[in-house]
Design goal:
Two copies of one chain form a homodimer.
Chain A lengths: L8 H8 L3 H8 L9 H14 L5 H8 L4 E5 L7 H15 L4 E5 L6 H9 L5 E5 L5 H9 L4 E6 L8 E3 L2 H14 L5 E6 L5 H12 L5 E6 L3 H9 L6 E3 L3 H13 L9 E5 L13 E6 L3 H13 L7 E2 L2 E5 L5
Parallel strand pairs in A: 1-2, 1-3, 3-4, 4-5, 5-11, 6-7, 6-8, 8-9, 9-10
Antiparallel strand pairs in A: 10-12
Helix pairs in contact in A: 1-2, 1-3, 5-12, 6-7, 8-9, 10-11
Amino acid sequence: MSGNRPATSMDVARAAGVSQATVSYVLNDRPGSRISEETRSRVRDAAERLGYVPHAGARTLRTGSSGVVLVAVPDIPQGPLATGLLEELDKELGGRGYTVVQYGARRTKGVAAAKAWAELRPTAVVADASRLTRAGIEVLRAAGVKAIIGMGHAPMDDVPSLLTDHEGVGALAVRHLVERGRDPVVAVVPREEGLREMGLARLRGARSAGVPVTAVDLAFDEAEAAAFVAGLKGGEGVFAYNDEYAMLLLAALHDAGLRVPGDVAVIGCDDLPLARLTRPRLSTVRPDLSAAPARMATLIDRLVRGTACGDVDVWTLQLIERDST
Amino acid sequence: MSGNRPATSMDVARAAGVSQATVSYVLNDRPGSRISEETRSRVRDAAERLGYVPHAGARTLRTGSSGVVLVAVPDIPQGPLATGLLEELDKELGGRGYTVVQYGARRTKGVAAAKAWAELRPTAVVADASRLTRAGIEVLRAAGVKAIIGMGHAPMDDVPSLLTDHEGVGALAVRHLVERGRDPVVAVVPREEGLREMGLARLRGARSAGVPVTAVDLAFDEAEAAAFVAGLKGGEGVFAYNDEYAMLLLAALHDAGLRVPGDVAVIGCDDLPLARLTRPRLSTVRPDLSAAPARMATLIDRLVRGTACGDVDVWTLQLIERDST
């Protein structure tokens, strides 16, 4: 170690008796150089001895690509689905030489968000579509970001998207309720900021199924759920937005002495492990994300390499019929 | 913009007719320079026009501090507690000029993990204690990381810790069960890797409360829960490790026709929103994390500035008595 400052590639070069360029070639595994195995191992030994590690930032300065994939986490609470997805994406991209970092959860968007992200000189940025404005995208491009990808439920004009088909969730749930003879059909739209927009997309899907659907605004609140349940007449099929809202309604229906599915049928979305523990067991729409990490990694890698490509579906949907419908 | 490469501080200097050092002083808000407001606004205008954003990596090279706080996310699924905590930490540190990034969830530890983290030249690293080996800490120090902090339930020799008091959870839960006249007392230890160690710490705490405590190994599985419940004789008080396991047991007890708390009392931990929806409503130990973000930010900031400081408690514990005990 050189005093108490971190070792630099210059220190490694001096210790190994080679040029700084040689150190860079060896430690970054760059192709196209004729460096002997003996020199390579001398450089690697010196780096090891001095505690030198390559610097993603310095790599950026030299090659224009840090390999950093910046994922701007959405403002909504991260469920186990999102966590597992990021873990798998990290594995997929790690195998291709990228480093995934999640950017802190500050609620910025547009140019302000883009400038903050650009400070890390990422090679790729994956962000919620609502946070990517046209001006923000320009800031990222000017800062050398090669792949810019939106996540959302509708395609974007300027950049490719990872599409989460919320309309499909609503349509699948309501078709199931209709098949089970439910009438009328009710769809819950959560009032929380961050969920509301997805709720409205699910409602649009619910209404595409060919039957009248009543929309109900609902906060995640036991008193509101009790008031909603008190207004039911029996026979309803309720698409509860997700499993958490479905569990809220199941508790309220239980408290009101209503039978599920005898009086009211309830279906959720997500197939949360906890939602399988309800009695009756909850029917749900399961978003199958198993193909998503590989698709996302391929999309990012193609954009970085400049190969044209389009939108990608994050999930496929599957109806899980249990006892609540 | 300069062709299709990102604008550099040199481009800004040329456009504003000043030196590169002046650009650096103005855009990084560094103190101690005498630059007129007129020059400052000319530099800022040029940066804006060229789409230039400062480069966290380049800042590292000049000042030795990137301001990046790298949080290596734990291998266990991230609950809403952990998510909220990171969001608040990000706000606290953002206000002090730091940038929080979460590093991908690859299951590395020791030197391998430290080398990967060091590539981003963070100013601070916060990682699960189990991933910080002595050799790994040396790698980080050699790479110029100024603050290295472990997260775990026991203090560490080499670095300060953010302490999560799992023993306190077990002790508080069992004292409550004893006060409610429960005998015998049973503590669930989850079998999942990643949870098991915390389960054993909670068990140690449970056994410190002064009564015999039977430990039960349990996977998060309905069949196993049913088998466990079939062996109960009545009168037991069960500390279920956390709210999710408590919900698993409530479902199994319901299926077996046992009354809660009449036959068996159950207490969880976490105070999850979903766990409030159980019938009977779940008693739980609530880890209050509200003071944690400010404490963590202060610890990180002090370490970066070289001010000596010690371990910090992440949470305080509170018993929430509802209807299941």
